[in-house]
Amino acid sequence: MEKLEFLNRQITAAHTRAAALRQRLAEADAPASLPEEVLEQLYTALEELRVSEEELRAQNQELLAVQLLLEAEQQRYQDLFEFAPDAYLVTDPAGVIREANRAASALLGIGPRELAGKPIALYVADEDRRVLRQALNRLAGVQAPLEWELQLRTRDGAAVQAVCRVGVVHDGDGHLCALRWLVRDVSEHRRLQDEARQLAAVQAAHAEAMAAQETLRFLGEAGAALTSSLRAEEVLATLAELLVPRLGELCVVYLADEHGLVWRRAAAHARPAAEPLAERWPAELPAADLPPPLVRALESGAPERFAGDAECCAEAPAQLAVPLLTRGRRAGVLVLARSAEGAAFAAGEAAVAAELAQRAAAALDHARLYQRAQDAVRARDDVLAVVSHDLRNPLQAIMVASTIMLELVPRESRTPLDLQQLDIIGRSVDQMAALIQDLLDLAALERGSVTLQRAACSVRQLLSDAAQLFRPQAERTELRFLCRAPDADADVLADAARVQQVLGNLLGNARKFTPAGGQITLTAELLGGEARFSVADTGPGIPAEHLPHVFDRFWQAQRAQRGGAGLGLAIAQAIVAAHGGHIAVQSEPGRGSTFHFTLPLARGTPAGSAGPDE
To answer: What is the DSSP annotation of 372-421?
Structure first.
């Protein structure tokens, strides 16, 4: 600008001197031709100089404007560099820091001036310095920016996980002269990512737990449904209904015959849209014609997933064969099918089907065993009916014959031995008849064919009737007998004859095992909505290992070597259970035994306690 002003002053001075020169030539009357030409040329040159001056002035203004723009852009770049939210660094090719903005200074905890001249490797974690050196070596031969992740160390030693994006700067000769670094702290981002992954894992675990809980709930309900019946056909129908539509559109169950030669379709259930699929499965399949997927499932004992083909319902692209195994026996196989494309059975679904099949197989086994037991009970009852009928006839004949013999012998001719033998015959017949009746009673009670004649019965009256019948027996065996009735009477809803049978069995059992001079106590108490009857004796007691078996049929402990078939307590238990009561025993060797049972009170009866001895 100063040079331009100087040039302007020189041109103005030249114009002034040229004008003065022309004036002097005019006054001196000098020849005008040569000086005029010279002056004219001089004026032309001066004018050209003035035009050049104007052009220079315009160019100078343009340069000034460009310079201002450059200075503004430089300041703007400097501000952007300095106040950028991300950390920026400028280093030489070896990684020595030349410039650092405030964000970089804050990231590393060191002032910008202190950073200048320091190798950036000083602020890189030891385990990542090799990565830094490799990256710097690669930058020497690339044009595009490189990006990698490093762990930085601040002044106070804190770790900062950062992503570095580094661009190269070349000079006019194309030589690498500087590196520009963009350093972003991704610690928080990584933390958020880790938290997001953990949250996703927790949510996935929660979803899995909820699915598992739902599966367990379903299996629990399914198990209850499958065990609610002891009929095989009902179990299979329930199984098919449970599986459709939860796991498939069609369920077919095949069971093997006794010899495993023929597999018959035992159940089938399908959604309306899948009913045509069910027709593709025949009613019977010879063992030799079982489709290969079913054979593989039965041989491996595991679910077999397969696609439909010409032999296995080609219209269903997704199918599952699950074996029904019970105690190592191949009881059957169930087949699930889906008609939708891309609806293959997942491993979890196969596992649920396998678990359900296992429970169904167990239920089928229980149904089979129950049916066998029922068949055995019916056979036993048939045998008992025949045997009891066939035995009662000769027993009756023996009794009649012994009576006739007694009557035919004159009284004066009867010897004590004759009377004794006839008495033995009579008692043996009575014992055999009682045994036959016990067998018939127990069989009828167990199969539930006994009809109880329930009515409101006085607790005191039941006790009084039992005591009246038993007291003479106790006196004959030199036993002390006590009967304790409740203070307030109440009614039980029961069959009085059957209750007397229970009391008679318990009292007779106590009499057999209580030595002469001992005591038997019959007691009744009112407890809440029940009446509890107890028979206590002072006999030898029952060993603890025998207590679980005292109500078993035909069971007798060593102490019970005094006759009887071991049916009295089993019959008593069956009668009490038929009334909705409970029977139990408490005993300690050497201190006697106490049998007690409960019966429900009739409505509107008061509760009380035992009364005084009678």
So the answer is: HHHHHHHHHHHHHHHHHHHHHHHHHHHHHHHHHHHHHS-GGG--HHHHHH
